[in-house]
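Usage example:
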Amino acid sequence: MADTVAPTNPTTWVGRLRPKSLSRFVTTVLLFLGAWVMVFPFIWMISSSLKPTDEVYDSDFSIIPKTFKGWENYYGVLFDQPYLIFLMNSMIVCLGILVIQLLTAIPAAYALAKLKFRGSTILFGTVIAAITIPINVTSIPLYIGLVRVGLLDTYFAMMFPFIVSVFAIFLFRQFFRGFPDSIIQAARVDGFSEIEIILRLILPSAVPAIAAFSVFSFVAHWNDLYWPLIVVQSQDKMTATLSMMQYQSAFDTDYGRTYASATVVTAPMVIAFLFARRLFIRGITMTGVKG
Amino acid sequence: MAVSRLQRAQTRLAYLLVLPATVLILVIYIIPILLVFLASLTDYTLVSDDYEFVGLENYRTMFGDEVFANAVRNTFFYAALFLPCAFVISLILAIAIQEQKQFRSVLEVLYFLPVTSTLAAMALVWATLMDSGQGVINTTLETVGIPGVNWFGNEDVVLYSLATISLWSIIGFNMVLFLAGLTAIPQNLYEAAAMDGADHPIDKFFRVTWPMLGPTAMFVAVTSSITAFKLFDTVAILTQGGPDRASEVFLYLAFLEGFEYFNMGYSAALSLFFLGIIFLFALIQALFTDRSVHY
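Running the assembly step on the lines above writes:
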């Protein structure tokens, strides 16, 4: 390339050789090489999900399958195996958790941000302290409690530890505090009830925070392995992520189909991410702690 | 008069609004934490209904137990592998990507992709990529003359393998945090530093970027540490603590004791030890970082 350009347009050629732009070019190439490493497992997974078993372990790997078994693999996962049920279970649990989290957190956050009442400081302190407590610490009593009331292996058990999000209360409270008091006062004078104020003034202004939190909550619970592993016992409550545990003991020797199922499990979050990139990045990095 | 009636009504409403959340916080956080503490003083197992208070016996067992010591060692060794890389690689990437004009958002998306993916599913992919016989990684190594590695079967290697997978899944996440921190640094600081003679990128980094990045760096360090101590998914799916307990990390041990062997009392003591570590990090974070930067 450079050789053909050089005689006709020496300035560009020299310009390209300047150390600054050269190093920038090298950086770009290196960054894309790194990106290839990050994305390669996905490419490999999708490629393998379209192959017959013997080709998955073929030592000369090619992205394009030599024998296309994509239809059989995905048909097998979705219709011979109960993956549609697993996906639906994940969807039910994640949506259920999110809806109840919003219903409990938004009113509490509004009261903490804008209303005066005794005990608000203690409540807010408790919220802050509870943010640091991970499910791994409270899992034993929660599990024993669920065993005692005979609710193990139910959607309720799968959702219960997460239906109040102290993080959401904290986040929304910070967000609501920024809402001007004068507008709330004016609305009160105009005869708005507090509920109307929440629904018609506060909520619309909080849409960005609510959207970011929703993404965070949905992704975190979709990808959660720990709690479903503890409370789910039967196939018909199994979540998509939990179903991946079956493969630890070579449950399916059809490797093409195995990776078709892995693709099906991870696809919803990845596709949603590709459609709402900004929102995802903001929502997931909001908490700092991944997963 | 009217004002105070309004005030009373408002207070009543406030209690009503916080009631559901308060009850749930009690049931999901406060009471369970107290129960974990009480359980850690008993020999409670789910299998039998009888249990006795044993005082600090569980803690004595814990600190004298080689299995516990092994899990703590593994966790710290893994964290020591994982944390410096999770920090440095992400920072370098963030600085490099920030200077990219036209490719910045594409690169951001590509590096962030593993963060949104389901680690449990991607772990299966990594297992095959890292397969000791036919895996892509070993066959690639062998073509350039490096002997293949038994990634998950070798006691001395397994924690490196798990750290590699964790790195892959977190780098994009830390990178985005660093990018946010970098973007917040005012451009005129660089101009001022340049006038003082800090022209070289390395000078610029140590004179401007690093000091200004302090809160972000602290935040990334603390949250990555918590993530490191929470290692669970890949262990549960890929190694189950093996080979020969070489990858049995803390949280996995607590899980086994509680939910496989049903030694609830002992597992409660392990959980509280874990909570102590998390609290320590939260404390460090509270002391050193300005929350407003991130929320």
